[in-house]
Amino acid sequence: MSDELGMTSPRPDDDSAFSEVLAAAQTGDDRSIEWLFVRLQPRLLRFLNAQETRAADDIAGEVWLAVATQISAFEGGWSDFRSWVFSIARRRLADYRRTAVRRRTDVTEAAVFDLRPSSDSIEELVLDAMSGQEAAAMIASSLRSDQAEVLLLRLLADLDVDQVAQIMNHTPNWVRVTQHRALRNLARRVDAKIAVMR
Amino acid sequence: MTRPDDLFNVTQPPISEELAEQLLSGSNPGVGSTPAAAQLGALFAAVRAPGDPSELDNMDAIVSVFQGAVVTTAAGQTARTRPMIRKLLTGKALAALGAVTLVSAGAAAAASETVPSAFSSDKAKEVTAEHVPDKALDAVAMQSDGTDDDSTEATETTEAAKAKADKVADDATDDAADDATEDATEAEGPDATGPAKYGLCTAFAAHAEHGDDTDADEAAEPTESTDVPVPFQNLAEAAAAAGQTVEEFCADATPGKSDSAPGQGDESPSATAPGQVGDGPSATAPGHGDDSPSATAPGRTDNPSVTAPATGSDDNPSATAPASGSEDNPSATAPASASDDNPSATAPGSSGDHGSANTDHP
Question: N or C: which end of chain A has fewer CB within 10 A?
């Protein structure tokens, strides 16, 4: 499949196409780098924005720099690459939060988000007018941080349960249970909002 | 008062595992089964929506930085590899040099009748400095002399040394942990008719030629009765048994020739002893090895720690391979362990992709 960059997009079962892109990116080929960037940056930004709005752009830049410095040693498929990139993002996010705590900035506790009502944009959701960033932010603000992170990794990084478990240092069963609770909680919020709308 | 969401679990069917996977993987055949599921499906579709231009507005800058970093990193890795190779080579060279130095130092020490204390264990020193019997020395066919603080001890007669050796043998037998000393005190000496014949003959000849060259300050003024160490006594006895003089007996000695070599292996349990049996006399013979039977030979030959470090550091790849591998080879599994930013590239359980919505991004 040809895309706007004139490259073959890797299909779910086709890692060979990605391997060509990866090999070219490892040599600094700009088109291959753009190919990776176009496919990952929007989702990366949504993932970061949903959790640290103020620093999302900076952290994304750090993630790409880290990817650039170590991509030459990377081996794996497209799914592995996404998992790798989001794992870096998650670690950079944790670093940022640790630094923010040391700087005594006004980091909002996750519990505050639990008490926060669902986004008022549910109507927009019903109207299918919510942007990607808004939808991701709504998930993050409607759920506990671990539940939101599981859902965002599954949705934005297209990772399966095992990959999410590996990134989050939990068991696959923990991921399954967490994502199920997250879906139930999210559905409850959506349903409540719809009930209020009615 | 009952809130609307309190009745959610009553009014809404539970989310099945299958439905959850359909929602999260983006395959939506059953998403519209319930209103809540339909809303979740719409929400997740929005999350997966292709990026808008605002999310790619800094692409040029990041790609440029990315490109520069890749090139710089690639160059840096190439530059780093060379010194590491040099380090490895240097390490191996140093290890080999160390091995050679240790062996040379041992040989030199033996030749000069001075063996550094590091070459022998405490027990061995305790024994060798004062009590080592000639038989122990004979076991390895090494002659050297303790010329340091124990130089006066070297003037003891062989008989006295033997008398003490009996006592040491008893003590050493009791000390089961010190196998080296035990083996040393139980040694019978080289068989002059065995493989040690050539070495003994060579040593004997050298001794005959240089035997009087001992330095005065070595304090070893052997008496006539103690001048001939047991190896040479064995040689003389073997020659006498053959009805020959020592010179005649040695005339047909060739390296490695073994008329009969009973018990040589048993008497030299050390891995290094066999080589030293043949080489020792010739290495230590020139005028130095005959003055005193006391030496560190048992410690050297029976204590494998003398040679083990040298050979171990040189030949054991396990000591250097992991370190070098972890530092210098970031391929394959390196992304998983080299740094925090390297999750497993070959993640177990990764079962392929779920389809990327971004592949359709303009």
Answer: C
